[in-house]
Design goal:
The complex is a heterodimer. In chain A, 50% of the residues lie in helices and 3% in strands. Chain A is an all-alpha fold. Chain A is elongated. The chains are: A mainly alpha, B mainly alpha. Chain A: Pfam families: Cytochrome_CBB3. Chain A: Its EC number is 7.1.1.8. Chain A: It comes from Actinomadura livida.
Chain lengths: 301, 547
């Protein structure tokens, strides 16, 4: 107790308390802030889809909002609650379900990306050492992949629409990166920022960060225009253009920062913050240290 | 002011002898090398600016060896694969060349940019220190104005430098510059055409900005830095109100050898920090932004921090415009471009003179005020900081909305409201805090400071023993001047003083300046001031404290 009393009267005690409080706030914030998990590219096992299973999955997971016949629902005032799924196509279903956006948890300005529900989670971990667990996980993954294929095939039968692109169309290796960069800056950067960091939109909506989006999902998003995103059909951006954009995004997000820490790649805001807090902070500490040095021999004059 | 004279150290004598035998100026050097400088960490803030300016000059020269200020279109074939085969201006291509193909080029670019960030940041911090300690008062008003001019030139210099690489981010900044030029009534389009030499962006703008950036503005800055330092040297540095320091005498270390060593070491610190930043923190990655294309834009396009408050005012401004007689007046661009800048810069420029006029203080000041001892000045300073700060943060509103999951509209409206409310609140709160601190000081002088020793009285009452403040602390506490009472409205014969409307305004402002002032004076034998007495004797606890 005595030591604490002596300690808290030190000149730096106030700064230490402020620093500790700031650190505590940071830790608490980090604990509460939402975390996004990276979704892995899913390998679509090619098998004949089971439409009956698709209908069952639809009834269980989607019909409560989209209606028993996928016709969409409206509230008492006639405002749409959920859109009709007739004609949205398999690509749209695949995008919404594998990014975890659908089934949605709660309505809001925008449905966020999240971990897909277990039925559709095609990105679960299977590399367990225990053969029993590994087998179980692999079975679950196969089941989830089959479920997604069945569901999207079922929706496709309702009224057609864009199909899921083949793996060759989304392969980043086959795209022209320079062209992709140009197209990205003209068509995508105004919402998603220079390298896909994401950005704010009006009315609480936002363009999400593109760091954990798989090439297939990118292609599907351009093709179907989910939520606030416009549709880039094959006459606006040809399949070659789409592949170029995918190639650019994958390339740039895997590219290391040659200049050191990238500071989130969000431009001058984080640069200014670091300059003021760290740069000026260090120099102020240096100034305090230099000022505190008193030469012993020299008399003050 | 005068300095106590002591014999200069031997090392000085030797050097001076050498110089004197050749230039015959020993008296001048002898007098100046032992010039005394007061010590306080906040006096080093201005030096950060000086030294980062030197770093800027050195790294800037390196960059000019390879940078090509040309808008000529070329196809990139350098080593950055993501842009190979893309058509771009020669300016952008040469910036990529510096970044990826010149040895040390990226490091130099990054040091240059970080030094610019620190240059402007330290100027602002230094100005805040000068403002809040009242160091701009007579006789230093001119140096304050020179400082403001350098800050303004620094903003321009930064904007021009940021525009040179002709990447997508800086091109967006130039596009806004063009919009601001065009929004000026009557002459706007002429200014725009004169500046850009044709339709935006044109071929001329980058070479023109380059000349201004590497030649004209640095030369002006260098001249002003010299004037700033010479005036400071001549007038001597202000000092904090510590023991031994007075209006007549500077208390500190001589320039040679102590202060020279300190400031030399500090230069190395500044160089070290900018070099570390250049090596470890990526800044302005133009290769990620891509070449400028008037048809493209990105979200999260912000200027460097010192332009942030202008960006913010542009972002929160409602879309107002007036269309009359076939002309459009874009208030939504004109007002945010000119008004906040005008308020901040004009306000800062006239403030020393306004303050002297209001307080009627025509004396020379060499000892700084503690911020609490000039509550109105401190409160106005905090109101200005709030005004600037809110606009500055508003410049990053989309980043804030995106990172903290807030609605963009909510941020815009928050800043629109706090733009008006924030400075007023800051004024009121700061003034009350200052007066509270004055009361605490008066208490410390009258009753001493808390000793941390709890004593129990015979009746079983606990109280903390107070001890008189130490001499050094007492000196600081007593540095406050009691506000002078305003000149009486009527003279001895009861005749009202002859005052025009301006005179009345001045007396009212003067009253506001001195309102609630708490006199801090030593009283013999720990007695109380008249006003304090009642309040203190009302409580038994304080009586215990006197023992």
């Amino acid at each position: 107790m005595k030591r604490i009393t002596a300690w808290r009267r030190r000149p730096w005690a106030g700064y230490a308390v402020v620093l500790a409080a700031l650190a505590a706030i940071g830790v608490v914030y980090a604990g509460f802030s939402p975390q996004t998990d990276r979704a892995e590219a899913h390998s679509s096992a090619q098998a004949a889809p089971d439409l009956e299973n698709g209908r069952e999955l639809f009834n269980k997971n989607c019909a409560s909002c989209h209606g028993l016949n996928a016709e969409g629902t409206k509230d008492a005032d006639g405002n749409p609650i959920a859109p009709s799924l007739i004609g949205v196509g398999a690509a749209s279903v695949d995008f919404q379900v594998t990014t975890g956006r659908m089934p949605a948890m709660n309505p809001g300005a925008q449905v966020p990306r999240k971990e897909p529900i277990p039925t559709f989670n095609t990105s679960i971990k299977t590399d367990y050492d225990d053969p029993e667990r590994r087998k179980q996980a692999e079975e679950q993954l196969a089941k989830a992949q089959k479920n997604v294929i069945d569901l999207r095939a079922f929706i496709q039968t309702l009224g057609g629409g864009p199909e899921v692109p083949p793996a060759s169309a989304v392969d980043p290796e086959g795209g022209d990166v320079a062209l992709g960069g140009k197209l990205f800056r003209t068509n995508c950067a105004q919402c998603h920022s220079f390298t896909g960091q994401g950005g704010a939109l009006t009315g609480g909506k936002y363009a999400p960060d593109l760091h954990d989006v798989t090439p297939t999902q990118m292609y599907e998003a351009m093709l179907t225009g989910p939520q606030a995103m416009p549709v880039f059909n094959d006459s606006t951006l040809t399949p070659k253009d789409k592949q170029a954009i995918i190639a650019y995004l994958v390339n740039v997000r895997e590219e290391p920062n040659p200049g050191g820490n990238g500071l989130g790649r969000i431009g001058p805001v984080s640069e200014g913050l670091v300059g003021w807090l760290v740069g000026l902070g260090l120099l102020v500490l240096a100034a305090m240290w230099i000022t505190a040095k008193k030469p012993k021999k020299l008399k003050k004059s | 002011m005068s300095e106590t004279t002591t014999a200069p150290p031997k090392a000085v004598e030797g050097t001076l002898g050498f110089v004197d035998e050749r230039l015959g100026s020993t008296t001048f050097f002898g007098r100046n090398v032992k010039k005394v400088f007061p010590d306080h960490w906040s006096f080093m803030l201005g030096e950060i600016a000086l030294y980062s300016f030197i770093v800027l000059l050195l790294t800037g020269v390196y960059l000019t060896f390879w940078f090509k200020p040309s808008m000529l279109e070329v196809v990139y074939d350098g080593s950055y694969t993501n842009l190979q085969g893309v058509a771009m201006s020669e300016a952008y291509a040469s910036t990529l060349h510096i970044s990826f193909d010149v040895r040390g080029g990226l490091l130099m670019r990054q040091i240059h940019h970080w030094a610019a960030i620190l240059f402007m940041a330290s100027i602002l911090a230094h100005m805040l220190r000068v403002f809040f300690t009242g160091a701009y008062r007579k006789p230093r008003e001119l140096n304050w104005l020179i400082g403001l001019a350098m800050f303004t030139l620094g903003i321009l210099e930064g904007l021009f430098g940021y525009s040179l690489p002709d990447d997508l981010l800086s091109g967006t900044g130039l596009r806004i510059t063009q919009g601001v030029a065009e929004s000026i009534p009557v002459v706007g389009t002429y200014i725009y055409m004169f500046l850009f030499g044709g339709e935006f962006p044109g071929q001329d703008i980058v070479p023109r900005l380059y000349m201004l950036h590497i030649l004209l503005i640095p030369a002006l800055l260098l001249a002003l830095v010299t004037a700033h330092l010479m005036i400071m040297w001549h007038q001597k540095h202000t000092a904090m109100p510590v023991k031994h320091q007075s209006e007549k005498q500077v208390y500190g270390y001589p320039f040679y050898p102590v202060f020279m060593a300190k400031t030399g070491a500090y230069f190395l610190f500044v160089f070290g920090v900018t070099a570390l930043f250049g090596a470890f923190f990526q800044i302005n990655p133009v290769w990620l932004y891509g070449p400028y294309d008037p048809g493209a834009i990105s979200s999260g396009s912000q200027p460097d921090w010192y332009m942030g408050f202008l960006e913010g005012s542009l972002r929160i401004m409602p879309a107002w415009e007036i269309n009359a007689w076939g002309h459009t007046l874009s208030l939504s661009v004109l007002i945010p471009a000119l008004l906040p800048l005008g308020i901040i810069m004009t306000g800062a420029a006239v403030w020393p003179f306004v303050e002297a006029w209001v307080t009627g203080d025509k004396r020379q000041h060499h000892v700084n005020d503690r911020p609490r001892n000039a509550p109105v000045r401190t409160a106005i300073g905090m109101a200005a900081v709030t005004f600037y700060g809110l606009l500055w943060i508003a410049g990053a509103n989309d980043i804030l909305a995106e990172r903290f999951h807030i609605s963009l509209f909510a941020t815009t409206w928050f800043f629109r409201v706090t733009f008006f409310v924030g400075p007023v609140l800051a004024y009121i709160i700061t003034k009350r805090i200052c007066i509270g601190l004055q009361r605490k000081d008066a208490e410390s002088v009258a009753h001493g400071v808390e000793s941390g020793v709890i004593v129990m009285s015979p009746e079983g009452r606990f109280s903390e023993r107070h001890e008189p403040a130490r001499e050094a602390e007492m000196h600081v506490l007593l540095s406050k001047e009691t506000a002078l009472p305003a000149a009486p409205d009527r003279d001895a014969a009861g005749i009202p003083a002859a005052k025009g409307p301006v005179g009345h305004l001045r007396s009212r402002l003067n009253r506001a300046w001195t309102l609630d002032d708490i006199p801090i004076e030593e009283h013999g034998n720990g007695g109380h001031g008249e006003g304090e007495q009642k309040a203190i004797e009302g409580s038994g606890e304080s009586r215990e404290a006197k023992r």
